[in-house]
Each structure stands twice: as C-alpha cells, then as structure tokens.
Amino acid sequence: MQYDRTDARILEIVQKNNRLTSEVIGEMAGLSATACQRRLKRLRSDGIIEADVSIVSAKMVGRPIQMLVLVSLERERADIIDRFKKAIKSSAEVVNGFYVTGDADFVLYITARTMEDYEQFTRRFFYENPDIKGFKTMVVMDRVKAGFAVPVEMPTED
Predict the structure, then answer these.
(1) Using CA atoms, how far apart are residues 158 and 28, in angstroms rounded to an integer?
(2) Phi and psi dihedrals of 39, rounded to 5?
(3) Whole-model pTM?
(4) 62: alpha, beta or left? (left if phi > 0; alpha if psi -120 to 50)
(5) Rounded Cα distance, 15 and 49, in Å
(6) How many alpha carbons lie under 13 Å from residue 41 in its C-beta half-sphere?
(7) Do residues 110 and 69 lie in contact, with contact meaning Cβ atoms separated by under 8 Å?
(8) Strand 94-99 with 65-73, pairing
C-alpha cells in the first residue's frame, strides 16, 4: 500500500472534512474531480481510508456518561482474547476498544445514559464473563479532544 504526496494531501483534506465534493478536494489537491475520485476509491480499497464517519456527541444523543475502562483477562490465551474482541465488537455501549500492553489487556471507551445503566452493563459484560479477572473504570470529566485524524507522513521522493 503505497501513496504519494498527492494522496497524502487528499488524506489531510478528508480527515478534516470528508463531506467535501471530489471537485473541491481535487481543486485543493491540484487534481481534476475524476482523478480525485479514482484516488479516493483506491485509498479506500487499499485500506488506507478505513471509514468515512461523523463524530457524534454522546452527550447530545442521550449518553452523557463516558468512561475509560481498563480490563484484565484471567489468562492471555488466543481463544480468550478472540472471544473478548468479539464481545467488544458486538457491544453497542463500547464505542472504542483497544488490545494493549501494560497492566491491562484492553482499554475500552464506553458511553451510558446513567450510572445505573453502566452498572447493569458491568454486571452483564464483565461480572458474568469468567474470562475477566478485573476491570477499573475511569469516568470522563471532560472530553478535551475528539477525532480520528492521524498525522499523514509525506512520502519521500526517490
């Protein structure tokens, strides 16, 4: 999966606003709309662009309680890890999940309507799962930054 400087410019543009038309993106990147569309299609099919999403305010859609949860598994076995990854993917409450190194095995970003709802979630998701050794919840006081934009490295010209 290679990309050039023009692709890098397109990636920078769409990370800031993916609702721009191909005409506008192309103009900003120095391309025709058709050439821009072709590049966007390739960047998506190559997996460089994973998804086109909108960042929704959890608070504004009735889920004002946000937590980061550190989860430790009983054992680090491939089948246990795979089972927990599947559970994360199928849970609507888990917005983001990361398999990590360090003291915890996973870090989850979870939203809830109320603390009572979160307590019910913990009973169902953690306490009833025999593969979970323990979990620690950190309640988010203030979301300082939200996004998925990553710095795009400019390829060197050979």
Answers:
(1) 24
(2) -65, -45
(3) 0.86
(4) left
(5) 9
(6) 6
(7) yes
(8) unpaired
Phi, psi of 67 (to 5 degrees): -135, 150
Q: What does each of the 158 residues of the chain score in pLDDT, given as a tens digit?
A: 689 999 999 999 999 999 999 999 999 999 999 999 999 999 999 999 999 988 899 999 999 999 999 999 999 899 999 999 999 999 999 999 999 999 999 999 999 999 999 999 999 999 999 999 999 999 999 999 988 889 999 887 65
Q: What is the CA radius of gyration of the chain?
A: 20
- Dihedral pair phi/psi, residue 13, rounded to 5°: -65, -50
The structure tokens listed for 53 are 């999403």
What is the DSSP annotation of the chain? ----HHHHHHHHHHHH-TTS-HHHHHHHHT--HHHHHHHHHHHHHTTSS--------TGGGT--EEEEEEEEES---HHHHHHHHHHHHH-SSEEEEEE-SSS-SEEEEEEESSHHHHHHHHIIIIIT-TTEEEEEEEE-S---------PPPPPPP-
